[in-house]
Amino acid sequence: MTDKYIVGVDLGGTKIATAVATKEGKVLNQLNIPTLAEKGPDVVISRIVNSIENLLSDLKIEKSQISSLCIGVPGHVNAEKGKVYKAPNLADWNNIPLKKILKTHFDTNIIIENDANAAALGEFKLGAGKGSSNMFFITISTGVGAGIILNNKLYHGSNNSAGEVGHMTFNPEGPRCGCGNTGCFEAYASGPAMAARAIGKLKKSAKLTAEAKILIDLVDGELDKIDAKTLSEAAKKGDKFSLEQIKENAYYIGIGLVNIINILDPELIVIGGGVSQIGEILFDEIRNAINKRCTMNVDSIAPVVPAQLGTDAGILGAISLGM
Ligand SMILES: [Zn+2]
Questions:
Q1: 1 pLDDT more than 70
Q2: Is the Cβ–Cβ distance between 16 and 9 less than 8 Å?
Q3: CB atoms within 10 A of CB 41
Q4: How far is the CA of 252 from the centre of ligand 1 (A)?
Q5: What distance in angstroms lies between residue 280's CA and the mean position of ligand 1's atoms?
Q6: Tell me: the pLDDT tens digits for 269-307?
Q7: Can you name the residues that pair with 153 across neighbouring β-strands?
Q8: Is residue 92 helix, strand or coil?
Q9: Are 238 and 114 contacting, i.e. CB atoms less than 8 angstroms apart?
Q10: What is the CATH number of the domain that holds 83?
Q11: Could you tell me the residue range of the domain that residue 44 belongs to?
């Protein structure tokens, strides 16, 4: 019998990562190329096709040996139809029948999925969620996305938009969100939201500016350089102001997760994305907020753990779709 392989593609706004893996999810070879998203869907799709063909020929694998070709897309996807409705970071991706187009190049099982859903499935099958059945995955970086695993399966919702937790209303009078609405969870919990609050406070208060000496030195006095990463670095060096900003952000994340727990009562909550890399100072405070505000859970509350796949989450997530 000829061996079968999974091809995974993590389509991002700046980079296309393509990998060929075994049925067990072991990556044999990977290729990263720039997306050139500004050139539109035709160019991007042909770059995906070329990437896959190059990898297969390097590994001397025939197209007929692909059991599944799986793509994580940063946008609103109809997984059943294999269609991309829209992808804000990819120019002109509106109603693209991606599965149908790829089928003309690869006559195999093709799976198109939202990237946060794919990352959730990756953690579920290969990372922090192994062994659970009901898992909630949230990724917090520039934006906030999520994937829901119920009874060992991805839950898409009736209209393919389950898991858009970044746009739960947190405070209708709150700051403007990238989606156009005001006061979304994302506008409180994302990395840029935390940085914007910190910058706003420092611009207003000389006392806080004096307290934030380590942070301000770290960004050479340029407040606009403050981001989740510099706040994390400064906090770890003992900067009290930065630590407070992280705790405040963790509190907001915790409140968002309490809302999730009250709806889903998951077995496990996995947090990924750049902001989660702040580490235990963030996680401790998230758990505190949850413990304080979860009033309806008598037995136990879902553990909150960091994602394990790190920078490979996108590509392993795509591969996990075919496992
Ligand atoms: Zn929003």
A1: no
A2: yes
A3: 18
A4: 15
A5: 27
A6: 999 999 999 999 999 999 999 999 998 876 789 999 999
A7: 150
A8: coil
A9: no
A10: 3.30.420.40
A11: 5-123+313-320
What is the token pair recorded at 33? 């190329």
Strand partners for 196 = none
What's the gap in Å between 173 CA and the centre of ligand 1?
A: 13
Pair 208, 202: CB distance under 8 Å:
yes
Separation of CA 73 and ligand 1 centre (Å): 19
Q: β-pairing, 5-11 with 66-73?
A: parallel
- Ligand 1: centre distance to CA 175 (Å): 10
Give the chain's domain count: 2
User: Ligand 1 centroid to 89 CA: how many Å?
Assistant: 15
DSSP E strands in the chain: the ranges are 5-11, 15-21, 27-34, 66-73, 76-78, 83-86, 94-96, 109-114, 135-140, 144-150, 153-154, 268-272, 304-306
Q: Is the ipTM of this complex over 0.85?
A: yes
Ligand 1 geometric centre to CA of 112 (Å)? 24
Question: 136 pairs with which residues across the strands?
Answer: 148, 269
Q: Are residues 301 and 262 in the same domain?
A: yes
CA gyration radius, the chain: 21
Contacts of 245 (CB under 8 A, 6+ apart): 194, 197, 198, 201, 231, 235
Mark whether 135 and 249 lie in a shared domain: yes
The answer to whether residues 272 and 123 touch, using CB atoms and an 8 Å cutoff, is: yes
Residue recorded with tokens 């209303």: 169
